[in-house]
């Protein structure tokens, strides 16, 4: 064969290879779309969701509320009660009810006839055991024992009796009533304490009372975590509930963009990632059918470092709050997907506790002239004519506002804040450190201004006030009071709120009113907007989704929401016609 | 020969020790405390955070002085223990790496070998052939100048998002779990093609250009002209030219390995491919010391071993090296 011919042959061979690869891929693409494999899950009976799991799957320890694989609590393990944040009502679940026998003794009635997935019956002893686990100081939910006054948990007949010393932390205790996973003692007692507190536990040994059983995915590289509906869930018989999807598959997140492309391709039914407003169209629906489209899940706060000049001055913070052009943030960063927060920072689900008079008196909204006037009155003047005000002692003010790098909506927002503060004469420069650095700097007060939104929906605004006012201030403030606002009065009020039962409406309202006054007078943190409970629904395979006009349930697979009302989403879904 | 090998291996050992020491040091001197990051993620109540801090500090061995941490690191290393992941506590780093490794290898090995083979063949064909030279050469220039990540994004946009011929992300379909089945293999192949192509095409361009230039150089060498003047067929002349041109390319392969591995890391991120690249990104974002360390250590070792293998292979491929080592002229 001549070189020329040989060359041609190789060329032809290469072309054939390329053609073969393309043909194979197209063939595979066609097969993927049409054929149903014996191995693959049936699409019409499977519920795909994304937006919850960012760390690898593998952790199925219900104590690790921030880390466990999606659905560990809610689908497998359940809680004594559930809480509906949209109505404010507690829903009896593994407990049929409970009441305060005295001011410091709470009695929980345990539901009879509930069986774990291994066939053993749930007993009050399991409930006591589950609450007792929190006694270990390294248990992430140890605060139940450390700060509510809880002294003993005892089984009496078919009830579990919680006895407190002194006035209980009612608000916190209510929180734990629907956040402590009820686990089987006969399985968990075989684990060591360290495993129970910090381990990942054995996925093949998940024995829960919930509607789903583990199938696969508990590995560090798994892309999906698969749950399968199990027969014999107690709520089917007791309450007539049955989740519609036979399989629930959680999809591991790598990026919002990749997830969105998969959602738009029809591979995901419930999309709990952030997506631009333009994605909401056609068969892709949301909780509200108009702006802001999503429920607000948490408040995004601007935390000033109150240990630094001039942010230690409430008047300066007030001027800053007035200078923020919130409408521009909503428009530029969110295209109307979020609502601006109440000046109190309280979520809409707590709006009944907002004292409108206090808000009218001390509240704030975007008003440049007002911002300038407050600065001038407080003695902040532009003495060197550079367009920015100086400290009272004449030194320059140059603040840095930060959010984690890559959080694009927040990055845009802090640019807007910097711009609008500039118009009021406050010099602020945006910065975008990576998340780890920001957390470290925030904890050690090495910052001027940061955004944070750690606290989600809960049964009580106490979680919000604790977030802002908790004392004492430690060397490293990892989770609360980032701004290091030191007010014993405010913290005492927060503790008073904790020790006031929600049912004592009058006293509760009075404390809430005082807290709002203290908060607004001092503005230790500036509430900005309600970050959305991002949720888009693909209506191709499933219908009857939660909505403002239909079933008012939390439409999210995020941890800690299943035991609110996300499980109701599954029991109310209906297969779409034609599938 | 043994002296040559000894010298080579010694250099690699020194490189390894230095690289591993740097690998140990870098994450420790990065700003940010990983345990505080973990506690923040946990939203641990302040009452519990002191207990938890001391628990995790001890669990990760941060409670001893730095020099001791360094020695402990080496001691553990020789037992194959790369420590526990911080963000995925208590999963061992080796387990995370071993889980991700097959996916990365499935991309890397075919991409390196096929691009080397095909690039050299096509480059050799293109040399001194006008039509091919006018098409392959400019195309190769464009390909080799393209960052893998950017090519990956373009491929994903065109073939996944717009034409919907391939999936956008992942290594297999959401309805499947890794297993030995035809269904899984098909899904895997379907997901593999785009990230593979991003790596393959860029490397292919580089090899093709290199080979095309080398062949032209070799064809103009005295031995080629001499052979041709003796009446040897063009095919034979080109065969010798190809063999000689391949030697610098093999050296190039050793040099390029690091770049290809780096390329695979970013391509994996583009396609959310569950390999070492995605693992690295997560580890860096979460300040997971031990995981970052473990992955880098793995990559360092891998690249060093591959280089050593190429160095040794060189002895067999190039008779001149062999003759030189045996004291011949």
Description of the structure:
- The complex is a heterodimer of chains A (579) and B (329).
- Chain A is α+β, with helices and mostly antiparallel strands.
- Chain A folds into 2 domains: 48-289 and 534-575, Dipeptide-binding Protein, Domain 1 (Dipeptide-binding Protein, domain 1), CATH 3.90.76; 297-532, Dipeptide-binding Protein, Domain 3 (Dipeptide-binding Protein, domain 3, Roll), CATH 3.10.105.10.
- In chain A, helix 13 (408-424) links the parallel strand 17 (399-402) and strand 18 (428-431).
- In chain A, helix 10 (326-332) runs antiparallel to helix 13, helix 15 (462-469) packs antiparallel against helix 16 and helix 16 runs antiparallel to helix 17.
- The relative contact order of chain A is 0.14.
- Chain B has 329 residues and is mainly alpha-helical.
- In chain B, 78% of the residues lie in helices and 0% in strands.
- The radius of gyration of chain B is 24 Å and the shape is globular.
Quick overview of this protein structure:
Chain A is α+β, with helices and mostly antiparallel strands. Chain A has two domains: 48-289 and 534-575, Dipeptide-binding Protein, domain 1, CATH 3.90.76.10; 297-532, Dipeptide-binding Protein, domain 3. Helices cover 78% and strands 0% of the residues of chain B.
């Amino acid at each position: 064969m001549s070189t020329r011919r040989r060359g041609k042959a190789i060329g032809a061979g290469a072309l054939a290879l390329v053609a073969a690869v393309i043909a194979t891929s197209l063939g595979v693409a066609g097969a993927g779309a049409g054929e149903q494999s014996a191995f693959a899950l049936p699409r019409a009976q499977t519920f795909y969701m994304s937006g919850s799991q960012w760390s690898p799957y593998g952790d199925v320890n219900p104590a690790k509320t921030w880390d466990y694989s999606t659905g560990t609590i809610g689908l497998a393990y359940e809680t004594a009660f559930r809480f509906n944040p949209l109505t404010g009502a507690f829903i009896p679940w593994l407990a049929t009810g409970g009441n305060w026998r005295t001011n410091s003794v709470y009695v929980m009635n345990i539901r009879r006839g509930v069986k774990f997935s291994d066939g053993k019956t749930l007993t009050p002893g399991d409930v006591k055991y589950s609450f007792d686990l929190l006694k270990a100081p390294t248990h992430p939910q140890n605060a139940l024992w450390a700060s509510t006054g809880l002294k003993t948990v005892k089984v009496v007949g078919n009830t579990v009796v919680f006895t407190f010393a002194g006035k209980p932390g009612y608000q916190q205790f209510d929180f734990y009533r629907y956040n402590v996973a009820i686990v089987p003692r006969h399985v968990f007692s075989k684990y060591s304490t360290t495993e129970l507190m910090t381990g990942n536990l054995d996925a093949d040994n998940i024995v829960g009372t919930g509607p789903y059983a583990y199938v696969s995915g508990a590995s560090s590289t798994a892309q999906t975590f698969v749950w399968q509906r199990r027969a014999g869930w107690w709520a089917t018989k007791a309450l007539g509930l049955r989740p519609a999807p036979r399989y629930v598959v959680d999809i591991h997140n790598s990026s919002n963009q990749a997830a969105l492309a998969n959602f738009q391709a029809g591979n995901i039914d419930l999309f709990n990632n952030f997506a631009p407003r333009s994605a909401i169209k056609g068969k892709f629906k949301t909780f509200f059918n108009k702006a802001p489209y999503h429920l607000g899940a948490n408040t995004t706060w601007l935390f000033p470092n109150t240990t630094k000049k001039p942010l230690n001055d409430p008047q300066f913070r007030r001027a800053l709050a007035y200078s923020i052009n919130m409408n521009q943030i909503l428009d530029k960063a969110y295209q109307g997907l979020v609502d601006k927060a109440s000046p109190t920072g309280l979520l809409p689900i707590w709006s009944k506790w907002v004292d409108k008079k206090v808000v009218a008196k001390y509240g704030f909204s975007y008003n440049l002239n007002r911002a300038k006037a407050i600065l001038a009155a407080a003695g902040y003047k532009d003495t060197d004519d550079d367009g920015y005000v100086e400290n009272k002692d004449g030194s320059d003010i140059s603040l840095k506002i930060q959010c984690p790098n890559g959080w694009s909506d927040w990055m845009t927002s802090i640019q807007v804040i910097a711009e609008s503060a500039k118009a009021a004469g406050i010099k602020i420069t945006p910065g975008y450190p990576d998340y780890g650095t920001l957390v470290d700097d925030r904890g050690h007060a090495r910052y001027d201004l940061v955004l944070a939104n750690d606290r989600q929906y809960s049964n009580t605004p106490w979680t919000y006030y604790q977030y802002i006012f908790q004392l004492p201030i430690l060397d490293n403030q990892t989770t609360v009071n980032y701004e290091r606002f030191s007010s014993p009065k405010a913290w005492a009020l927060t503790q008073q709120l904790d020790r006031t039962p929600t049912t004592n409406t009058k006293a509760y309202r009075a404390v809430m009113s005082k807290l709002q006054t203290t908060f607004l007078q001092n503005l230790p943190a500036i509430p900005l907007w309600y970050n959305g409970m991002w949720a888009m629904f693909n209506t191709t395979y499933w219908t009857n989704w939660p909505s403002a006009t239909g079933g008012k349930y939390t439409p999210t697979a995020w941890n800690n929401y299943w035991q609110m009302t996300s499980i109701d989403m599954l029991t109310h879904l209906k297969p779409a016609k034609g599938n | 020969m043994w002296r040559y090998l000894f010298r080579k291996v010694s250099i690699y050992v020194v490189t390894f020790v230095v690289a591993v020491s740097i690998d140990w040091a870098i994450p420790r001197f990065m700003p940010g405390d990983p345990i505080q990051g973990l506690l923040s993620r946990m939203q641990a109540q302040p009452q519990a955070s002191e207990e938890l801090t001391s628990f995790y500090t001890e669990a990760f061995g941060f409670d001893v002085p730095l020099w001791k941490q360094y020695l402990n690191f080496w001691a553990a290393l020789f037992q194959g223990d790369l420590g526990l992941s911080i963000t995925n506590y208590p999963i061992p780093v080796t387990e995370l790496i071993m889980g991700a490794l097959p996916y990365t290898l499935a991309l890397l090995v075919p991409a390196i070998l096929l691009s080397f083979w095909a690039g050299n063949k096509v480059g050799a064909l293109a040399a001194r052939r006008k039509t091919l030279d006018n098409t392959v050469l400019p195309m190769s220039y464009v390909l080799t100048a393209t960052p893998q990540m950017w090519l990956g994004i373009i491929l994903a946009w065109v073939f996944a998002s717009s034409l919907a011929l391939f999936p956008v992300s992942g290594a297999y379909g959401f309805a499947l779990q890794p297993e030995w089945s035809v269904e899984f293999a098909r899904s895997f192949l379907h997901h593999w093609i785009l990230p593979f192509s991003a790596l393959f095409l860029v490397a292919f361009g580089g090899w093709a250009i290199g080979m095309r230039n080398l062949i032209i150089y070799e064809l103009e060498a005295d031995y080629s002209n001499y052979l041709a003047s003796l009446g040897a067929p063009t095919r034979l002349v080109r065969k010798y030219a190809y063999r000689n041109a391949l030697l610098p390319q093999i050296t190039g392969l050793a040099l390029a390995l690091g770049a290809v591995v780096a390329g695979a890391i970013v391509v994996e991120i583009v396609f959310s491919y569950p390999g070492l690249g995605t693992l690295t990104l997560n580890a860096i974002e979460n300040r997971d010391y031990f995981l970052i360390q473990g992955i880098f250590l793995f990559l360092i070792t891998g690249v060093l071993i591959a280089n050593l293998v190429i160095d040794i292979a060189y002895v067999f491929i190039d008779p001149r090296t062999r003759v030189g080592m045996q004291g011949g002229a």
